[in-house]
Design a protein that fits this description.
Distance between the termini: 22 Å
Shape: elongated
Number of strands: 16
Structural class: mainly beta
Oligomer: single chain
Order of helices and strands: HEEEEEEEEEEEEEEEE
Helix content: under 10%
Largest sheet: 13 strands, antiparallel
Number of helices: 1
Radius of gyration: 17 Å
Strand content: over 45%
Length: 222
């Protein structure tokens, strides 16, 4: 999955809350492990098919007492071609576009944020109970800048790639859900910026559809 993005936040309270929160989106889940130890086999089908992920409902980015809500978000990628769509012990990984976010609002007024995503993003699917999906944010792959009551810069995965853990459900369409996923962040800026914040949280549900053949479903099995 690969692309780029933009979001919204606020001062002191906003600074920390909003900025840190936004960075999560992308995604994200800082110290969330990839959950691959002693992992079983994984197969993602249809092999070689493209897929798109579209936000269902809203994405919420939270930090402290501040919440940022985004109403649109998308990304895309492709299932690896056979035999790489199967892993005998561990996850199947696909490159994806950095997620985009739009129509975002903050619970506190006065700050306008801009988020840019870049670099080599990936998603790893692991069959199990439950099936998991881990989105990896590349080093400094998401940067949020705010203007208004606070001028801050929040960088996600500031020193190393960060895995954001979610849960996958096979369906029509299949879904990838992130609940209070965390991601490491570094915050810089002046008054009102949450420079002590080191993590943010993210919740969202994405519907994943087959863009090569809409009559098919992207499915993860063992």
């Amino acid at each position: 999955m690969k692309t780029r993005r933009t979001l919204s936040a606020r001062a002191l309270g906003v600074g920390f809350a909003t900025t840190a929160a936004l960075i999560c989106a992308v995604p994200a889940s800082a110290a969330s492990p990839d959950r691959t130890s002693a992992a079983g086999s994984t197969t993602v089908t249809p092999a070689g098919h493209g897929f798109s992920a579209t936000l269902s409902g809203t994405a919420t980015l939270k930090a402290g007492s501040v919440t940022v809500t985004c109403r649109t978000s998308t990304t895309a990628g492709a299932v690896p071609s056979a035999p790489d769509n199967h892993a005998p012990a561990g996850p199947v990984t696909s490159a994806v576009a950095p997620p985009t976010y739009g129509s975002c609002t903050a619970s506190l007024p006065g700050v306008t944020p801009t988020v840019t995503s870049s670099g080599d993003w990936t998603v790893s699917m692991q069959h199990g109970q439950p099936v998991t999906g881990s989105l990896t944010v590349p080093t400094q792959g998401l940067v949020l800048k705010t203007t208004g009551l606070a001028s801050c810069t929040v960088t996600a995965a500031p020193t190393a790639p960060a895995a954001v853990a979610g849960t996958w459900t096979n369906a029509a369409p299949s879904t990838l859900v992130f609940v209070n996923a965390t991601v490491p962040v570094k915050v810089t800026g002046g008054f009102g910026c949450p420079t002590r914040a080191t993590t943010s949280t993210f919740s969202a549900t994405y519907q994943v559809t087959d863009s090569t053949d809409p009559s098919e479903q992207i499915t993860v099995t063992g």
